[in-house]
Amino acid sequence: MQKHLFAPEIRERILSIKKRLPSRPTAVADLYSLPERFTKAVQESNYSQQSLQEISDHIGHYLGLLQSVRITLHETFEDKGWSVSPGGDVYADAGCGTSPTGLYQTRGFDHNEIILVKKPKYGLKHIVAILAHECTHNYLCFHNVGESKRLDNEITADLTAAYLGLGHLLISGYQPIIWDTDSYSTEHTIRIGYVTPDTIRKAMVISCELRGWDPRELVARMPSILDKIVVYMQLWPYRIKFNRIAKEKKISGNLAEKRTATINCLRMEVTNMRSIYSELRDLLATLTQTVDSKKILPQDVSLLVEISNKISIDQPLIQIETVTVKINSLIASAITDDDLCEVKNQIEYIRNYLQEWRTLLCKYVPPDKTNER
């Protein structure tokens, strides 16, 4: 019989599970998505072991488990209980009070197996739900997580499946199976799973914020319109928070992108200043060798001397390299407007006096004269 848990207990159990699992519990951060080609292969092959094995391996890889678990499917035409012999054989047990449909077992070192039992009324969604539950047992075994009581262990597996991102598979498969059997339309109902679909749904809503899932993705994974509406409403507070954070990240990302573009422009400015400085050195050398000092106007002498002295010690180049170091040390996500403003001011200062020097030197040495030299 499926057990119904209320939200406070679900949250408490999931937080306990979270503490015992890695900080990044799955290889993929998003909710699990079962490719349609896998479900199609199961139906077309009439539930072949290979097709179910592919689903198991796909779930395992999503969970970060590279070791494949052997899948065995047994189909029965009677809805009786079943037992497993020490050798792994499955057989009907009329005296069994329960009717299990899946079993995860270990057989020695590094050899695990999942046994599935397909009963007459089971469809694909039920087999997938059972498989997801048993794959979660394998995951918990891998991380040495378990409970002392069998029922608690099964409930933990169901809630862990929800926390890991497999819960939507359980919600669909744990719905009651209802059918009529005789002329009086006697209704029969069976259920699989250890907790109700509503419990799994609540567990996924709680897990959504803990895992940082996109609430829109969780709503989209729900199997029915009713489930989608319920989850949409239950996620309302988290949705507001998620959208606010997403908006802040977008603004921050745009700002970082803009600042990165600014830094790249500054690098181009520095490259241009290096070219100008190299040209100034050539102009000064040509002036010294070819221009008669008597032709230099008195008002230009002082600045020419200053230019000569500063170029002789490469002072402009030192300033350019200093600015380059500052630019390279900037991190787009951490820099402030003040950082950029400071670098811009330094570049503008260097560029202005280099341009002033160039104008003066070109007054006495046209640029084409440097090529003749």
Could you give a quick summary of the protein structure above?
With about 375 residues, the chain is mainly α.
- In total, the number of domains comes to 2
Low-confidence blocks of residues:
81-99
Number of helices: 14
Question: SSE order in H/E notation?
Answer: HHHEEEEEHHHEEHHHHHHHH
On the 0 to 100 scale, the average pLDDT is 86
Strand order within the widest sheet?
1-5-4
> Oligomeric state of the chains?
single chain
Question: Helical residue percent?
Answer: 55-70%
Specify the biggest β-sheet.
3 strands, mixed
Tell how many strands the DSSP assignment holds.
7
Strand content: 5-15%
Could you say which structural class the secondary elements and strand pairing correspond to? mainly alpha
Rg from Cα: 36 Å
Overall spatial form: rod-shaped
Q: What features would you describe in this structure?
A:
- By secondary structure, the chain is mainly alpha-helical.
- The protein has two domains: 7-234, no CATH class; 258-372, no CATH class.
- It is built from 14 helices and seven strands.
- Strands 1-5-4 form a three-stranded mixed sheet. Strands 2-3 form a two-stranded antiparallel sheet. Strands 6-7 form a two-stranded antiparallel ribbon.
- The termini are far apart.
